[in-house]
UniProtKB/TrEMBL annotation:
Gene3D superfamilies: 1.25.40.490. GO terms for cellular component: chromatin; Fanconi anaemia nuclear complex; nucleoplasm. Keywords: DNA damage, DNA repair, Nucleus. It is found in: Nucleus. DNA repair protein that may operate in a postreplication repair or a cell cycle checkpoint function. May be implicated in interstrand DNA cross-link repair and in the maintenance of normal chromosome stability. The lineage of its organism: Eukaryota, Metazoa, Chordata, Craniata, Vertebrata. This is Fanconi anemia group F protein. InterPro entries: FANCF, FANCF_C_sf.
Length: 374
């Protein structure tokens, strides 16, 4: 067992070196031995995936490496943080070497030959490796898009192909980091919030919350011991938003009203907090007698038009969200004095505006005026 743990330590060092200029000294034979070592550890992953004591020992050693300050003199090795990572350690090594310009031409050529041997019969391992490389290359490209193409405007964000790609990437990554420990996805999201363009990141989260559930991969179906929370990545996003009030306030302020309505309809646990924010924003407005409109005291206050548009969008949602919104407005109106004339309570004015808008819409559609409610 100790020999196996030492092998794991040495490969962790090897993986860390693979991203440095030291690979300039690697010849083709070194590259071939490094890949053999990685494939050996992948074999260990498959063989002992259901062997509790050995798996736990390897998991513990990897966790210690990940948390150790300045491990191996170079810091913890990204990507090799848990037992599951051993299942694609050859992919991690290959991708690092392919991206490292310090690798010599002869060694790079040998690496490509090892990865893509050309026509002929390939075993299952080779096919899996090539598919994994393609998936990781797609992920790296999506990260590049997330960082440098975040300012493209599209009124239908949930249908934007770039946004959907980024959302799928985010959900896939949340599934992967969640296999190590329950708290890692939240830390991962917080790190993205600090590093990426925030407005674009919020849009990606919204689109991710509207994606259908991700189907499990064959490897995950064969390993029922993998942690899985209800709802997978989308539930992780919901919990993270609800646990970070400032982020959720920015989420609700930055996103279009229609998109937020779709998100809160899909995830009902978000709607009470969203309604609470709208209520807080409304209470900050006061009625300007000269202008005849509701205005804010400070520049960052939500204007009347935006507040009305957001409530109007929510009132166009199907029940039960629409009913909750109308109940909340009626409650605020009652608490504010239950006035029926405009200019005294913003909640009265919002209800009047919403009812007038609904009445005009029914007239345009040629329908009966119906009840005075929205």
């Amino acid at each position: 067992m100790e020999s196996l743990l030492q092998h794991l330590d040495r490969f962790s060092e090897l993986l860390a070196v693979s991203s440095t200029t030291h690979v300039s000294t690697w010849d083709p034979a070194t590259v071939r031995r490094a890949l053999q070592w990685a494939r050996y550890l992948r074999h260990i992953h498959r063989r002992f995936g259901r062997h509790g004591p050995i798996r736990m020992a390897l998991e513990r050693r990897l966790h210690n490496q990940w948390r150790q300050e300045g491990g191996f003199g170079r810091g913890p090795v990204p990507g090799l943080a848990n037992f599951q990572a051993l299942g694609h350690c050859d992919v991690l090594l290959s991708l690092r070497l392919l991206e490292n310009r310090a690798l010599g031409d002869a060694s790079r050529y040998h690496l490509v030959q090892q990865l893509f041997p050309g026509p002929g019969v390939r075993d299952a391992d080779e096919e899996t490796l090539q598919e994994s490389l393609a998936r990781l290359a797609r992920r790296r490209s999506a990260v590049h898009l997330l960082r440098f193409n975040g300012y493209r405007e599209n009124p239908n964000l949930q249908e934007d192909s770039l946004m959907k790609t980024q959302a799928e990437l985010l959900l896939e990554r949340l599934q992967e980091v969640g296999k190590a420990e329950a708290e890692r996805p939240a830390r991962f999201l917080s790190s993205l919030w600090e590093r990426l363009p925030q407005n674009n990141f919020l849009k990606v989260i919204a689109v991710a919350l509207l994606q259908p559930p991700v189907s499990p991969r064959p490897q995950e179906e064969l390993e029922p011991s993998i942690h899985k929370s209800p709802g997978e990545g989308s539930q992780v996003l919901v919990h993270w938003l609800l646990g970070n009030s400032e982020v959720f306030a920015a989420f609700c302020r930055a996103l279009p009203a229609g998109l937020l309505t779709l998100v809160t309809s899909r995830h009902p646990s978000l709607s009470p907090v969203y309604l609470g924010l709208l209520t807080d924003w409304g209470q900050r407005l006061h009625y300007d007698l000269q202008k005849g409109i509701w205005v804010g005291t400070e520049s960052q206050d939500v204007p009347w038009e935006e507040l009305h548009n957001r409530f109007q969008s929510l009132c166009q949602a199907p029940p039960p969200l629409k009913d909750k919104v109308l109940t909340a407005l009626e409650t605020c109106k009652a608490q504010d004095g239950d006035f029926e004339v405009p200019g005294l309570s913003i909640w009265t004015d919002l209800l009047l505006a919403l009812r007038n808008g609904a009445f005009r819409e029914r007239q345009v559609l040629g329908l009966s005026p119906g009840l005075s409610s929205v």
